[in-house]
Amino acid sequence: MYAEFYGLTAPPFQLTPDARFFYESTVHRQAMAYLVYGLHHAEGFIIITGEVGAGKTILVENLLSTIDRSNFVTAKIVTTQLAGDDLLHMVAAGFGIAKEGLAKGPLLQRISEFVTAQHRNGKRVLLIVDEAQNLSFEALEELRMLSNIVIGRTMALQSFLLGQPQFRATLGSPRLDQLRQRVTAAYHLGPLGESESRAYVEHRLRRADWKGDPHLTEDCFPLIHQRTAGVPRQINTLCSRLLLFGFLEELHTLTGEAVEKVANDLREEIAVVATPSAVGYTTADPVGSGETLSQISHRLAVLEDTVDKHGRVIKRGIEIVASYLQGKRS
């Protein structure tokens, strides 16, 4: 809704990773250098860690957008708590390898044959594993075994492991000594600084053909950085809601006051969602795990205020959309 209101060609702050909106901050530029180095050496594991929303996935998407895809066969899997055999089945599925009814041995053989065939056709095989912090030791060991597929002197399958910071502790285990020896490049993706948070916002707006509408006043940017800690996904969430707020209120100038209001609204929403039994309590625990009636009353008052506030926002949005549609018809 707000994209058309502001004359934008696309929503600039979508949460879905999109290489078109990749912003090469200092940390992302350094991380890209590590990825390119690892890809150039065509062997082993490339590891990128970072907080939730730091931009790990879009970093790899950007890398893949810069290569000649006709020379590569890629598969991406997003892990949950997988056993070793389950991971192998996901790898096979990612590459389109038939796996039905196969035990571990034949499945490994089929993956090896696939990788070898691609190599003979002049193609490199890349495996991208997202949320790698969820992998068990057994699953990581299976990935290491896949790196044993060597043709001549070349490792025929290369893996990118993307994970949250705790994945570094996992990799430090003595059980993974052999895997660590095969790490070609590793980088930890930190948050954006204040100046780069601003540059990030303006970059994504420009990628959506922003012509200065809405105008963001100078006091917006320090607050956006402060309220998001420079984490790109959190910046996207806050700025998307900020533009939605501007659309609903028909604003073409957005101020620090608007940023504060939207950030506070988001914080209240998260607090409500994250509070157990925010609306009601079970008969087995009628007072909410030992809370006093005063505490319960206060929490329900906050919830009621939040619901009322968003009810008014939704109502206003419906009114604006109806008015817009009426104008289009006339």
Brief characterization of the structure:
The chain has helices spanning 2-5, 26-41, 56-65, 84-94, 104-120, 137-146, 166-171, 177-180, 194-207, 220-228, 232-248, 256-274, 293-329; strands spanning 45-50, 72-78, 124-130, 150-151, 154-155, 157-163, 183-189, 215-216, 253-254. By secondary structure, it is of the alpha/beta class.
Question: Mind explaining what this structure looks like?
Answer:
- The structure is a single chain.
- This protein is α/β, with parallel strands linked by helices and 330 residues long.
- It folds into two domains: 26-189, 3-Layer(aba) Sandwich (Rossmann fold), CATH 3.40.50; 196-329, no CATH class.
- It is built from 13 helices and nine strands.
- The strands form three sheets. A five-stranded parallel beta sheet has the order 2-3-6-1-7, with helices on both faces.
- The longest helix is centred in the C-terminal third of the chain and has 37 residues, at 293-329.
- The model is unreliable at 278-289 and 293-297 (pLDDT under 50).
How does CATH name the architecture of the largest domain? Answer: 3-Layer(aba) Sandwich
| Largest beta-sheet characterization | 5 strands, parallel
Order of helices and strands: HHEHEHHEHEEEHHEHEHHEHH
Mean pLDDT: 84
Shape: elongated
- Regions with pLDDT < 50 over 5+ consecutive residues? 278-289, 293-297
Helix content: 40-55%
User: What structural category arises from helix and sheet content?
Assistant: alpha/beta
Total domain modules: 2
The helix tally amounts to 13
**Assembly status:** single chain
Radius of gyration: 24 Å
Distance between the termini: 20 Å
Overall strand count: 9
